[in-house]
Each structure stands twice: as C-alpha cells, then as structure tokens.
Amino acid sequence: MKQQVKKSYVSETVARLKPSGIRRFFDLASSMEGVISLGVGEPDFVTSWNIREASILSLEQGYTSYTANAGLLELRQEIAAYLMRKFRVEYNPETEILVTVGASEALDLAMRAIINPGDEVIVVQPSFVAYEPLVTLAGGTPVLVETHGDDHFKLRPEHIEQVITERTKALIICSPNNPTGTVLQKEELEAIGRIVKKYDLLVVADEIYAELTYDDEYTSVAAVDGMWERTILISGFSKGFAMTGWRLGFAAAPKEILQAMLKIHQYAMMCAPTMVQYGALEALRSGEQDVEYMRKSYRRRRNYFVQSLNEIGLHCHMPGGAFYAFPSIQSTGLTSEQFAERLLIEEKVAVVPGSVFGSSGEGYIRCSYASSLEQLQEAIKRMKRFLERL
Amino acid sequence: MKLSEKEVEIIEILEKDARIPMETLAKMVELTVEETEAIVKKLEETKVIVQYAALVDWRKVDGHEGVTAMIDVKVTPKRGVGFDEVAERIYRFPEVKSVYLMSGAYDLSVVIEGRSMSEVAQFVSEKLSTLDSVISTTTHFILKKYKHDGTVFDQGDQDRRIVVAP
Ligand SMILES: Cc1ncc(COP(=O)(O)O)c(C=O)c1O
C-alpha cells in the first residue's frame, strides 16, 4: 500500500520560486507550426567556423581532461587582455578572472559568494528573468526597482537610493539591458556609482551584451572612477560571439570576491568544459572581425525594425544595444500577455510578453530582431494586420 | 571615388540582396527613401554598382545541362600593350565568362561556360589555342559548385533555435 505523502520533498525556497514566464510561453509557441519567432534571446548566426574548428582541433589533439578550476590560464590571460583592450579595465588573470559555464553560472556564483541570509539585493526591472530567483536561491531578498518606458528604461540614482536599507548588499546592473536594449552612458553610470559608493554597496554588472552596442562608445561599470573595487563584472561568449550553446562565460572581480566565487565553482563545477575553452580562446584571438560583421548586421536590422514598429503604431524607443526591441502595446488596451498570446495564435508571430521581465515590463512586448530580414519584414506585415483588426 | 559611410553601407546591403525594397533599405541606413534612392542612382550612374545579377543554381533546373571550365592560358605578351590586347581578344568571345591576369605558372585564367564538354573543347582548340600569342592551354572542368562568390549552394541554413528562449 502506498504511503500517504505528508509533505513535499522539495525545499520551500524552490517550491516558492515562480517558473519562468518565458518557459510557459515557449510551451505554447512550440506547439504551433509556421511561427515566425521574435521570441529568441540569442543570435541567429552560427558560431564562426574558426572557433568551431579550434574546438574540434583541441579534441583531435586529445585535450580531454580537466583544466585548472579557474579555467585555462591562457584563456584567462586572453580575457584579461580583452577587457583591457575593450574597456580599459585591468584584471590579474591569475587571481581575478574566473571562467564559468555561461554568464548564468557567473551570476549564480556572484550571488552565492556575497549574500548573507537576509541580505537585500537590488534588482532593476524590467530585467533578465534569472536575477530575482538567483538572489532568492542564495538566501537573499530581491528588492525591486522599476524603470520606465517614458524615461527610456534608464536606471536613475534616486530610484536606487529610495530602496536602500541597512541590509542592502548589492545592485545588479545590466547594460545593454535584456529586454529593453537600454544602454547606460558613462555619466549615468557615474551618478549611480556615487550612490553605490556612498552606501558602500557592490555592483554585479552583467555586461554580456557589451559587444552589441550600436551608437555610442561602451562604458563598463568597472571602468567608472572608484567602481573597480566594488564591481563583479560578468560577461561571456553567448551573445557577442554567437556561442549560446557552448555555455561559456566569465567573471572578473577583485581578488577577495573572485576567490570566494572560485571556491563555490570548484565544488559545484570543477571547471568549464575544456574543448569549449579552446574555442573561446580562438574567439578572443581572431573573432573581432566576425563580431564586427554581426554587430553591423544587427544594427541595420534594428534600424529597420524599430522604425517599422513605430510606423505601424507600436511606439518603441531606439534601443542602444543587445538585439531586442521593446515596444509599448498600451495603445491596444490589451495586457502584454493577451497581446502576445493573440498575436501568436492569430498571426503566428511569437514575441515575449513584457510582464515576464517584471511589473514595469507590463504594457510592453519583447521582440528579438536577431532574425533574418525576410522574417522581420514578414513579422511587421503580420503585426500590422493584427493591429488593424484590433 | 571617395564614398561616404552611408554609401558604402548601401553597397554592402545591395551586394547581398539587390532586391531589397527601397523603404526597407532606407530604414536600415537611417535615411529617407528619397535620399536612399538618390544614392543608389548615383552609384549606378557612376558604375560603382555595375550590374544587378541573380546567382542561380542551374542544377536544379531540369534540362539545363551546362558545363563550366577554367582554363590556364600561357601567352606571349606584346610590346606596348602587354597582356591587355590578348586578354581583350579572349574576353570578347561570348562563351567567356571571366578573364583574370594571374601571377605564377600561367598568365591568364579564363572561365568558359558551354552547353557540353565537347562544346568547350571545341572552343578551346579552335578559338583559344589558335590565337597568335597563346602558347598553351590547360583545361579544368568544374565538377560541382559548392561555394560561388561567397555564397554556399544548398547550405542547410534553417534556423535551429527553439521558438522562445531567454
Ligand atoms: C542579460 C543576460 N545575462 C545573462 C544571460 C545568460 O548568458 P549565458 O548564455 O552566458 O549563460 C542572458 C541570456 O539570455 C542574458 O540575457
């Protein structure tokens, strides 16, 4: 006889976590055929051949064992050189750089390395779906701060200051942002930096889209005056180098913090996959031209897509980076869930409802323009038809 | 000719897709349709854009059997005109698709398209090798085109991504 189950085996923290709203929408979209997907948060390019080739070669040569916990030293040196070259920030490859399984792992490590039970971490919304749960899983309390469409989803220092308490430990910044594409400029980061310094906070800077900015020179949070020592810089190869499936990222931070992250990584992961690290090495050594080519291509598609959205009546600010347009759908009177669901069912265009990215994403939808121009043109045609019918 | 950044960008886009609607092109480069049209017109008039062509995979067309050969040609250059004169005599033949002056083991690389191997052979033996300055020819037939002018034929370029992802 089966015993009656009295309680769940799942931890209360996990049981309380909301499943990702993206997941739910994915299930709906993937049950349909002939869908044009603007719902994808990844490049439509396949990883450059020379990167793939370098990884294949490493296998052929038999590099199939573990690397150092922190990653191949060669790769860390190359990452350090890259951060210097791109952002003018200096890290010691021996002690201040860690190669991780995606930026995702680096984010998780950052949270776990810095949070004490009950610490508060400020999460800006709309934002990448993983931040809030990662803070919770690390035993912290996410404190949400909203940014708004009429202010181009800029994070303002006064927003942060309003929610700072005794327990505030850190702030997560994502620039360029997923889903809004908003890029924070140097002066804006400096203003935020002043608050961060005033209250002695840390910044977890998710700069995974830094390679994909289109209008102005990019400033890394770590390059802002006085911020290096309080920044955990997180990036990776997924977006800029079109390597999402490879699962490779990295963190750079002052030694004390980085070594704490390394401790967790060493027990949880040992090291990132070896052949993938060889691929990444090649990406940094010879990938610049390919990145430039992809950036140019996204930029043209962004220009086309955002202008067209505005023309068909979906007001959209010009995003400075990443590959997302985040138009307002408030004029339709629908919620973002209703809009996305009806657009999917009636016109077979998949977009992600903005509400998935937090409360201030309500009234918006996320459209990835990392799709072929033909697909984008067709999507615009269908969205126009949909709007005219509403 | 010194071209502006926008002009170069327009060329790059048209080189990949000459049939792109003018409205789309204009948006991509952030100009008005009129401005874009004016630039394209100028590029055409100044022959920066020489021609708009279609890249065709003729193997897919039933009954269209053609052969392409690349011929290495050694020639005696002529005083005063060098290789230009003989190159011109060669490229005037309609069968000839391209002619390049090469460094190395031979002088001219000539691409010929014909309906059959014997037609190409006949052209080489009767027209090409009988030219005064031609010393020798070596004919290579192309068996299969994998990539041409930067475009891969028959590439599996379907989108492998799942429909919705972070
Ligand atoms: C803002 C942001 N950070 C991190 C990630 C995860 O990156 P990775 O593939 O390197 O784990 C994503 C992926 O969508 C993202 O949008």
Automatic annotation (TrEMBL), chain A:
Alphabetical UniProt keywords: Aminotransferase, Pyridoxal phosphate, Transferase
Source species of the chain: Saccharococcus thermophilus
Record SUPFAM superfamilies: PLP-dependent transferases
Name of one Pfam family that matches: Aminotran_1_2
Keyword Disulfide bond attached: no
Protein name: Aminotransferase
GO MF term list: pyridoxal phosphate binding; transaminase activity
NCBIfam families listed in its UniProt record: PRK07682.1
CDD domains: AAT_like
Entry-linked PANTHER family: ASPARTATE AMINOTRANSFERASE, ASPARTATE AMINOTRANSFERASE-RELATED
Gene Ontology terms describing biological process: amino acid metabolic process
EC number: 2.6.1.-
Superkingdom classification of source: Bacteria
TrEMBL record, chain B:
Alphabetical list of SMART domains matching this protein: HTH_ASNC
Domain named HTH asnC-type: residues: 3-65
Pfam family name, one: HTH_24
GO MF annotation, one: sequence-specific DNA binding
Annotated InterPro entries: AsnC-type_HTH_dom, Dimeric_a/b-barrel, HTH-Siroheme_Decarb, Tscrpt_reg_AsnC-like, Tscrpt_reg_AsnC/Lrp_C, WH-like_DNA-bd_sf, WH_DNA-bd_sf
Domain of life assignment: Bacteria
Keywords: DNA-binding, Transcription, Transcription regulation
SUPFAM superfamilies tied to this protein: Dimeric alpha+beta barrel, Winged helix' DNA-binding domain
Xref: Gene3D superfamilies: 3.30.70.920, Winged helix-like DNA-binding domain superfamily/Winged helix DNA-binding domain
PANTHER family: HTH-TYPE TRANSCRIPTIONAL REGULATOR PTR2, TRANSCRIPTIONAL REGULATOR, ASNC FAMILY
Name of the protein described by the UniProt record: DNA-binding Lrp family transcriptional regulator
